Amino acid sequence: MSVDPADKPRNETRHERLDRQLMELLQGFRVAVTGVQVLFAFLLTVPFAAGFEKVDGHGLPLFYIALFGAALASICFIAPVFQHRILFQQGQKPLLIRRANRFGILGAFALGASITAATTLIVETLEEEVALTVVAAVIVLALCGWAWFVQPYLTRLALNGRSNGSTNGDDDASS
């Protein structure tokens, strides 16, 4: 029977672990911010595009949710980078990691709202059937919610449930 390398404890100091965690968070933000920037840039051009006048009283709030959601997601995903720069060498890495994690979660909520609103706006503009618009919104919101929040939360609950007391008391599950 082979042992899964992921089950072996890491041989790293607390400082090495903090460095790794911060780098992993920042790398994740690099991936997320690219998608957010593309969505945000697109949304910034929409009001100047031909056909925007077709967006009616139902579509305008969706547009604003998508726009401000993308703006908030951008702010959240970029904030940890600037906080790291400003607090550089101040011994605040644990604080930066906690804040970055919170910014990442808030940014993901904002991005999910933005993607859902943008998709719903497009379907609402193209289709006259309200039911199709509602179905599109529910599907996109459910997919974002499941993939980004529910599934990892359920995994976390399962991991905490099978914990054998070997953790060091850190809330971060050493990842």
What is the chains' assembly state?
single chain
Percent in strands: under 5%
Helix content: over 70%
Give the N-terminus to C-terminus distance in angstroms: 25 Å
Number of domains: 1
Number of beta strands: 0
Rg from alpha-carbon coordinates: 20 Å
N-to-C order of helices and strands: HHHH
Mean pLDDT: 86
**Runs with pLDDT <50, length 5+?**
166-174
Count of helices? 4
Structural class: mainly alpha
Largest sheet: none
Shape: flat
Describe the structure.
By secondary structure, the chain is an all-alpha fold. Helices cover 72% and strands 0% of the residues. It is built from 4 helices and no strands. It has helices spanning 14-45, 59-86, 93-126, 130-161. Helix 1 runs antiparallel to helix 2 (59-86), helix 1 (14-45) packs parallel to helix 3 and helix 2 packs antiparallel against helix 3 (93-126). The longest helix has 34 residues, at 93-126. Residues 166-174 have low confidence and may be disordered.
Task: Give a summary of the structure in a few sentences.
The protein has helices at about 15-45, 60-85, 95-125, 130-160. With about 180 residues, the chain is mainly α.
Secondary-structure topology with pairs:
Elements: H1 14-45, H2 59-86, H3 93-126, H4 130-161
Helix pairs in contact: 1-2, 1-3, 2-3, 3-4
